[in-house]
């Protein structure tokens, strides 16, 4: 059995199965339903679960996966630019709105001077989090395209922005005043996505995508995977399972 660091195999390894990488939580739950739908089309999928945002693209690029489904397009674009991956997206899957969460306050008006706010430490989700903080009226940014903490032009409450690994943010809520967290990690931590003080709107450009190697984008099995993900059965499953916290892509 082939094993990967920070990875759990969800089924017995089969050399002839189509290997799909996902992150823990909602993506893994949705993928297992995709397995059932794709089987009707003759595609046998093995789901391989990861516990971080980086390894699924490394595994895909080096040929240990046939596809992955866990990231939005800006994140994939950044990974391709920084790491030279020969990857591309072939279809949209779901939108997981980013939200601001807290165990200490119930309203953004209660944010005090010097409060500590956790955000994801990867460039795309970190920038996405800063844009949501600006939308919440907590900071002002001088740059709207992939901003970093260095692009904060106004921080009247002298907020302390702390960058952390995205999976750690839910567990860090006890030590933070606020945290900006991806919905998948929120659900995995058994938090209520509807408890967010503010969330991205449905117009968010951060819809998740299916990624494959460029050389495989016209592969018949890839097309069957996209068809299964975008089927009405999967959209109905997402609506029923996640009660509107996760939205199926159009």
Describe this structure in words.
By secondary structure, this protein is α/β, with parallel strands linked by helices. It has 2 domains: 7-96 and 206-248, D-Maltodextrin-Binding Protein, domain 2 (3-Layer(aba) Sandwich), CATH 3.40.190.10; 99-199, D-Maltodextrin-Binding Protein, domain 2, CATH 3.40.190. It contains 7 helices and 15 strands. It has helices spanning 26-39, 55-61, 73-83, 123-135, 183-188, 220-229, 232-242, and strands at 7-9, 18-23, 45-50, 67-72, 87-92, 94-95, 99-101, 116-120, 140-141, 152-154, 160-164, 178-181, 198-199, 208-213, 247-248. The strands form 4 sheets. It has a 6-stranded mixed sheet, with helices on both faces. The protein has a 5-stranded mixed sheet with strand order 11-8-12-7-13. Strand 2 (18-23), helix 1 and strand 3 (45-50) form a beta-alpha-beta unit. Helix 1 crosses helix 6 and helix 1 (26-39) runs antiparallel to helix 7 (232-242). The longest helix is centred in the N-terminal third of the chain and has 14 residues, at 26-39. It is globular and about 60 Å long.
Give a topology summary.
Blueprint: E1 7-9, E2 18-23, H1 26-39, E3 45-50, H2 55-61, E4 67-72, H3 73-83, E5 87-92, E6 94-95, E7 99-101, E8 116-120, H4 123-135, E9 140-141, E10 152-154, E11 160-164, E12 178-181, H5 183-188, E13 198-199, E14 208-213, H6 220-229, H7 232-242, E15 247-248
Parallel strand pairs: 2-3, 2-4, 8-11, 8-12
Antiparallel strand pairs: 1-3, 4-14, 5-14, 6-15, 7-12, 7-13, 9-10
Helix pairs in contact: 1-6, 1-7
């Amino acid at each position: 059995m082939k094993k990967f660091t920070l990875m759990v195999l969800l089924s017995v390894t089969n050399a002839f199965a189509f290997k799909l990488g996902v992150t823990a939580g909602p993506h893994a739950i949705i993928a297992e339903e995709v397995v059932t739908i794709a089987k009707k089309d003759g595609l046998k999928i093995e789901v391989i679960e990861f516990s971080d945002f980086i390894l699924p693209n490394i595994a895909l690029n080096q040929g240990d996966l046939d596809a992955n489904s866990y990231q939005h397009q800006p994140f994939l674009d950044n990974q391709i630019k920084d790491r030279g991956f020969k990857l591309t997206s072939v279809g949209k899957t779901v939108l997981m709105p980013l939200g601001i969460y807290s165990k200490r306050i119930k309203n953004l008006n209660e944010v005090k001077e010097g409060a500590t706010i956790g955000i994801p430490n990867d460039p795309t989700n970190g920038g996405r989090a800063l844009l949501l903080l600006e939308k919440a009226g907590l900071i002002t940014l001088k740059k709207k395209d992939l901003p970093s903490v260095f692009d904060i032009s106004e921080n009247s409450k002298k907020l302390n922005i702390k960058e952390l690994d995205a999976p750690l943010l839910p567990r860090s809520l006890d030590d933070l005043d606020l945290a900006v967290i991806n919905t998948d990690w929120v659900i995995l931590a058994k938090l209520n996505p509807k408890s967010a003080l503010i969330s991205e709107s449905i117009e968010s450009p951060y819809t998740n995508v299916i990624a494959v190697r460029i050389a495989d984008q016209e592969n018949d099995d890839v097309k069957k995977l996209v068809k299964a993900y975008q089927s009405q059965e999967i959209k109905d499953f997402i609506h029923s399972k996640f009660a509107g916290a996760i939205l199926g892509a159009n």
